[in-house]
């Protein structure tokens, strides 16, 4: 929702380059060279110091391009961690699954043949071990019920809802098991988490703009917000320590709503773009039959974020509705005592004194700031330029 940018100091950048994170990564790569030399040769362009540094400091607008290049060069990597990437490029058709098998037997047999055809293409073109597994399982299927069950599993892969299959996971290159140590997020978080978060200058979750994510440096405990991987590390392990893939966020948005949802390619990334200048919220008054509610307007590039972070529900809480009432009462009081608010809003000092509206980073530091701006716009008709 709220766009922000990191301002990493040169000292932080230098410290990371010389840190145990990089040393640990280099040691793990040397281990792979000695234990799995053939596999290392196959992935050596990914597993070298300069490329790892490139990934760590890759700018947010270039990350999607980097993902595409890596998965296209190493399709087996996608097959293991994000098989949807390969599967969605083939013409799998699952419309038959809405029909019962009885009375549609011939259609299901044809569906099985089409599945086998696409899976065979996938196996040959992308060297997909997952495709090989499904081919084998379909070949062994003794009845159409088993075919339908497998079809649902393949559909889940195509939709990005699948979980790793143990029988297949053990077949991938052994170096895949080393990626977590090469791109060691826990080590990065432990050594640099606080400094990364502070470099964002964000104190309110940029996903929801509703909850505080301030750092608390206590006498005994340092409490910091979550650092979300915008592109989840479970699907893009090579981005685990990419600084511009890390978003300081609240526990709700990171762990309860987003979790490991695949945000490639069409979710709004707050490190790339926000919707501060577009009106998201509208207040709909209640009637005798309906309750008052907050409507989230259609913003095409943001609609998936609305669903993922449950923002419709989040912004129809009693606390948010109470905040609307407070803003409305304030405006009514000003209209009655000082004159037309829309005219008064043209004065910067008035906006600051009565509504705490400034042109600084308020949306990054004040809870529900975006909501407040939209409600003032609706109630006064004042057109904010920023």
Structural features, described:
It is a single chain. The protein is mainly alpha-helical. The protein folds into 3 domains: about 10-75 and about 175-260, no CATH class; about 85-160; about 280-380, no CATH class. The protein is built from 20 helices and 6 strands. The chain has helices at about 10-15, 20-35, 35-45, 50-55, 60-75, 75-80, 85, 105-125, 130-140, 145-160, 165-170, 180, 185-200, 250-260, 305-310, 310-315, 320-335, 340-345, 350-355, 370-380, and strands at about 215, 220-225, 225-230, 245-250, 280-285, 295. The strands form 3 sheets. It has a two-stranded antiparallel sheet. A hairpin with an 8-residue loop joins strand 5 (about 280-285) and strand 6 (about 295). The two termini are about 15 Å apart. The mean pLDDT is about 95.
Task: Summarize the helices and strands and which ones pair or pack.
Blueprint: H1 10-17, H2 20-35, H3 37-43, H4 49-56, H5 60-73, H6 75-81, H7 84-87, H8 105-126, H9 129-140, H10 144-158, H11 166-169, H12 179-182, H13 185-199, E1 216-217, E2 222-223, E3 226-229, E4 246-249, H14 251-258, E5 281-284, E6 293-296, H15 303-308, H16 311-314, H17 318-337, H18 341-344, H19 348-355, H20 369-380
Antiparallel strand pairs: 1-2, 3-4, 5-6
